[in-house]
């Protein structure tokens, strides 16, 4: 939530915060870029935002520590940075899977199976924090709910019968 709000603040303060952000990036020998925002209608935007934030941690720490910019409330503790990195890692698989090709209706179930298997792995992996385990379990519940809905989808059944029609 803090990274989402910080990205919004930086982008929408074109006269104070955005120039300060770009200067911090230049001072750290980085290319001045805007932090991607997490947009609820873009499924991969959370991953993009986290990937950017983790790779720009020093700059984000610098901008949030400058008292005159009024961004101290967005400063992340080391434990929060660790969770951000873990969440980025969890989201990476799904993002890369769907980014490599154009998904279609016939690939829905295999994709859901792959994501379900990865979520099961993440939910049991002790290297992830308890908050990541909880989030993954909630995501699995949502995925299971959508998986059950495919049974009642006539469009999905039609697509699958055309895709898996036996050859004669």
Number of helices: 8
Helix content: 55-70%
Mean pLDDT: 86
Element string (H = helix, E = strand): HHHHHHHH
| Beta-strand proportion | under 5%
Distance between the termini: 55 Å
Largest sheet: none
**Rg calc:** 20 Å
The chain-level structural class is mainly alpha
Instruction: Name the overall outline.
Output: elongated
Regions with little confidence, pLDDT below 50 for 5+ residues = none
Write the layout of secondary structure elements.
Blueprint (H helix, E strand, L loop, with lengths): L1 H11 L4 H11 L17 H11 L1 H9 L12 H22 L8 H17 L5 H20 L4 H10 L5
Helix pairs in contact: 2-4, 3-5, 5-6, 6-7
Protein architecture, described:
- This protein is mostly helical and 168 residues long.
- The protein is built from eight helices and no strands.
- It has helices at 2-12, 17-27, 45-55, 57-65, 78-99, 108-124, 130-149, 154-163.
- Helix 6 (108-124) runs antiparallel to helix 7.
- The longest helix has 22 residues, at 78-99.
- The protein is elongated.
- It starts with a helix and ends in a 5-residue tail after the last helix.
- 16% of the residues are buried.
- The model has no long low-confidence stretch (mean pLDDT 86).
């Amino acid at each position: 939530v803090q990274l989402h709000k910080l990205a919004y603040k930086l982008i929408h303060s074109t006269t104070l915060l955005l120039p300060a952000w770009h200067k911090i990036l230049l001072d750290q020998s980085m290319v001045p870029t805007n932090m991607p925002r997490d947009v609820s209608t873009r499924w991969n935007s959370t991953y993009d935002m986290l990937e950017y934030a983790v790779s720009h941690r020093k700059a984000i720490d610098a901008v949030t520590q400058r008292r005159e910019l009024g961004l101290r409330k967005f400063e992340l503790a080391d434990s929060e940075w660790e969770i951000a990195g873990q969440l980025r890692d969890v989201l990476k698989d799904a993002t890369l899977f769907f980014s490599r090709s154009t998904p279609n209706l016939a690939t829905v179930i295999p994709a859901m199976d792959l994501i379900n298997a990865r979520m099961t792995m993440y939910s049991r992996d002790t290297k992830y924090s308890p908050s990541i385990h909880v989030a993954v379990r909630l995501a699995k519940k949502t995925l299971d709910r959508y998986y059950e809905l495919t049974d009642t989808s006539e469009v999905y059944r039609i697509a699958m019968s055309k895709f898996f029609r036996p050859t004669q």
